[in-house]
Amino acid sequence: MKAVRPKKQLGQHFLTDLSIAKKIAETLQFDTYKKVLEIGPGMGVLTQFLPMNQGQVTLMEIDTESVEYLKALFPTQHKQVLHCDFLKTDLQPIFGSDDFAIIGNFPYNISTQIVFKTLENRHQIPFFSGMFQKEVAQRICEPPGTKKYGILSVLTQLFYDATYCFTVPPGVFNPPPKVDSGVLTLTRKEKFTLPCDEKLLFSVVKMAFQQRRKTLRNSLKSLNLPKSLTEDSIFDQRPEKLSGDAFVALTKEIEDGQLST
Predict the structure, then answer these.
(1) pLDDT above 80 (res 237)
(2) Integer Cα distance of 94 and 169 in angstroms
(3) N or C: which terminus of the chain carries fewer CB neighbours within 10 A?
(4) Domains of the chain, each with CATH number or no CATH
């Protein structure tokens, strides 16, 4: 089957610089996993640099023309091409209980959703490497105490060590986007266990940053916490001052307080 290049879809920005694609692919180490999932491979610019002999590579693409192009371009014994939406796909039938890494040049409009789904499936995803809009990549890696530090920073860094790798200029894409891109890696913290309710933690972090200019005492009012609990000095803080561990401790305190009432 002849590989026919897909037409560019509205809103897509195809990476054209092979050296950058190779640099992203080289972040894969295969030390704690053998399988790789590439999200949104498009025309396979990054895909061609993913190893064929170290493990199974799965490509997940939503665009029909791109799927046909990828199937014609790459040998099926090395790369599995799936026509589906990562955000709507159950990963268990694909990978079973096996660990796998995620890699990709992610569409700007769904990149944060990709991160949140990764967090939901972190027990199977020890490593993550991807290109985002630069601002989003920086936000994920941002330390506490800054304006860019937020929900993504806290929740991602709780479970993964986040590293901002390098910046990618608009000129290496066709068509070029209006902003810079940034590549980051996430390496799972293998010894970390969560001592509080995960759902409550996510709710506390999101509620706190949705009103980030307010103190925690005000932003968490809807939880109807007992006054004896909110008198703690931590509730005088604004959310950007709290590390991930501090949010965990706060959530545990809230959880214990709710159980005792």
Answers:
(1) yes
(2) 34
(3) N
(4) 14-188 (3.40.50.150), 198-259 (1.10.8.100)
pLDDT digits (tens, 9 = 90+) for 26-58: 999 888 899 999 999 999 999 999 987 666 899
Mean pLDDT confidence for 117-130: 97
CB 85, CB 66: distance < 8 Å = no
- Global pTM exceeds 0.90: yes
User: Distance between CA atoms of 257 and 252, rounded to whole angstroms?
Assistant: 8
DSSP string, 215-237: -HHHHTGGG---HHHHTSGGGGS
Sheet holding 100-105, edge to edge: 79-83, 57-61, 35-39, 100-105, 127-133, 181-188, 160-168
Burial class of residue 14 (count of CB atoms within 10 Å of its CB; 0-12, 13-18, 19+): middle
Residue 128's SS3 state is strand
- Residue 5's pLDDT is 58
Total residues found in the chain within this entry? 261
| Count of CB atoms situated within 10 Å of the CB of 253 | 16
129 pairs with which residues across the strands?
Answer: 103, 185
Q: What is the pLDDT of residues 161-197, one digit of tens each?
A: 999 999 999 999 989 999 999 999 999 999 899 999 9
| 9 vs 138, higher pLDDT | 138
At residue 202, what is the residue type? F
**132 burial class (0-12, 13-18, 19+ CB within 10 angstroms)?**
buried
Cα separation of 209 and 85, whole Å? 29
Return d(Cα 118, Cα 124) in angstroms, integer.
Answer: 9
The residue type at 92: Q
